[in-house]
Amino acid sequence: MAESFIMLTDSGSDLTKEMAEELQVQIMPLLYTLEGEDPKPGDEVDIQNFYTQLQSGKTAKTSAANYEDLMGTLEPLVAQGADVLYIAFSSGLSSTAGTATLVAGELSEKYPQRKIYVVDSFSASLGQGLLVYLAAQQRAQGKSIDEVRAFLEENRLHLCHWFTVDDLHHLKRGGRVSAATAAIGTMLSIKPVLHVDDAGHLISVSKARGRKASLAALVEQMEKTAIHPAEQTVFISHGDAPEDAAQVAQMVRERMGVQDIQIGYIGPVIGAHSGPGTVALFFLGTQR
Fold first, then answer.
1. How does residue 45 score in pLDDT terms, banded at 50, 70 and 90?
2. What does DSSP say about strands 25-28 and 6-10: parallel, antiparallel, or unpaired?
3. 115: part of which helix (H) or strand (E)?
4. Nearest to 62, CA basis, from 96, 27, 103, 16
5. Is 249:122 a contact under the CB 8 Å cutoff?
6. What is the end-to-end Cα distance of the chain in Å, rounded?
7. C-alpha dihedral (239, 18, 160, 226), degrees to nearest 10
8. Residue 285, Cβ neighbours under 10 Å: how many?
9. pLDDT of amino acid 248
10. pLDDT at residue 42 in the model
11. 232: Cβ contacts below 8 Å, ≥ 6 apart
12. How would you classify the pairing of strands 279-284 and 159-164?
């Protein structure tokens, strides 16, 4: 049996507390602020109320984990004699991974007998969550911390993210689309289809006319690149759009024979930027 180690991720992964406990993974909360309120951890939230607030016109902001947050999370684990593998929110979307790497380097000098690894997931939401899920399976099979790190680095760019949003104005606020694009797109009911690229950035790939077409486009992208889809566990996340998420799940089952599909909410750390009505599909593919 390989040596045991602690696996850590952050709330950018959108894993529920129940799933994290089942996987024996610790979650470090990233903070968000809903207009006019104090900052709150992104893993403790009435998620439906959060989206209701966004629908009413309130804005939410998020913040990356800072040096003090990360040192305060990692050092106690290392000081108690544990090796730690932290699977971090994409560096293409947050500075958290970079700061964590700096902290891990300092702790490695202070505790030279310990292994402290940070893996940039280049992923977000349940894409990051699926990567953590797969890594936890590797550890459960007895793989060492070095073997699991190697697994993550080998597979993270095969973790495909395809998603669509219902309201372009949230992407406009985040600088992802222009004000003119948002206005015209809304008027014509144009829904962008986006993915996360190899650097972990959000990239708009195509446009679909209407909601139904945009949801089907996610499944079509999966059909193009998925590796042995019927044998995979597939994750779907949504911004308070459970019916649309279920529709995507049904298409994935019917077209590709996938049996194991996990559906969950997009948490506030991601949802602050993607907005209500977002639906995202995550799976392993030949390329992103």
1. confident
2. parallel
3. none
4. 96
5. no
6. 34
7. -110
8. 21
9. 98
10. 78
11. 226, 258, 260, 283, 284
12. antiparallel
Written in H, E and C, the secondary structure of 78-103 is HHCCCCEEEEECCCCCCCHHHHHHHH
Distances (CA, A) of 51 to 58, 123, 209, 276: 9, 22, 24, 6
Q: Residue 260: which of 223, 240, 235, 224 has the closest Cα?
A: 235
Determine the Cα–Cα distance for residues 208 and 204; give it in Å rounded to an integer: 11
CA dihedral 248, 254, 257, 263 (to 10 degrees): 20
pTM reported for the whole predicted model: 0.93
Q: What is the pLDDT of residues 121-136, one digit of tens each?
A: 999 999 999 999 999 9
Residue 190: what pLDDT? 77
Query: Among 72-76, 166-170, 282-286, which is the least confidently predicted range?
Result: 166-170
CA atoms within 13 A on the CB side of 88: 26
Rounded-to-10 torsion of CA 23, 43, 174, 167: 90
Residues 45-49: contacts with CB under 8 Å, at least 24 apart: 45/267, 45/268, 47/240, 47/265, 47/267, 47/268, 47/271, 48/240
Structure tokens at 241: 């759009």
